[in-house]
Amino acid sequence: MAGYTLSLFEHRLAAGGAMALSAANRVLYVVDGAVKVASAYGAAALAVNTAWCSPAAVAIDSPAGATLLAWELRRAGDTTSDGRPVLTAPVALDPTARYLMRGDRVDFPVGGVAYKHRHQGPGIRRLLHGSMRIETQGAHHDHGAGEAWFETGPDPVFAAASTREETAFARCMILPLALKGKSSISYVDDTDKDKPKTQRYQVFIDFPIQL
């Protein structure tokens, strides 16, 4: 296993603003506004609640302004900086294995829960609206809109959404490539597997990466 870091950045562009991001395995998600992105791997116009990925340097411009989330995976010790991260977490990956970066969004109704579960890889979540209580590793943490948290993947997690309003978060996970197009979740208790699930998933990106 080798050391890497998964980081989440927030970038705010004013109307007519532009920026350039260095090369990295990266997933972008548009929180609000709209942007145009271009890299050696192609170009796209992105609107609210859409995502894009590229391992290359990327140029971004926003005629009307926008807020972006950017998850970057880099080797530990890489001091390249694209701003101040919202959250950075160390992750251990097998450099001989094949992985993907999944960018998705999870929405919960009022009072929704995710029964105790695991994922097959680590990831960082950013709450878009609502609130979320996360119970894992013998502790609980309450998160409000705009806050971010890291989940290891193998450690069981129980999640409870706001009882007053709908809740949603955007997420990026590092998963085995074999999970491309497949769910990463498994439930700890067999009795929970067949219970109705109220959360809704939008998978935007399953982006194979080279470590």
Write the layout of secondary structure elements.
Layout: E1 2-13, E2 17-21, E3 25-33, E4 35-39, E5 42-46, E6 51-54, E7 58-62, E8 66-75, E9 87-93, E10 99-108, E11 113-119, E12 123-129, E13 131-136, E14 139-144, E15 148-151, E16 157-161, E17 167-176, E18 185-187, E19 200-209
Antiparallel strand pairs: 1-8, 1-9, 2-7, 3-6, 3-8, 4-5, 4-7, 10-17, 10-19, 11-16, 11-18, 12-15, 12-17, 13-14, 13-16
If you compute it from the alpha carbons, what radius of gyration comes out, rounded to the nearest whole angstrom?
Answer: 17 Å
pLDDT averaged residue by residue: 96
Question: Mind telling me the CATH superfamily name of the largest domain?
Answer: Jelly Rolls
What class would the helix/strand composition place it in? mainly beta
Count of the separate structural domains: 2
This entry's quaternary arrangement is: single chain
Silhouette: globular
Instruction: List the secondary-structure elements in sequence, H or E.
Output: EEEEEEEEEEEEEEEEEEE
DSSP strand tally: 19
What's the number of helices? 0
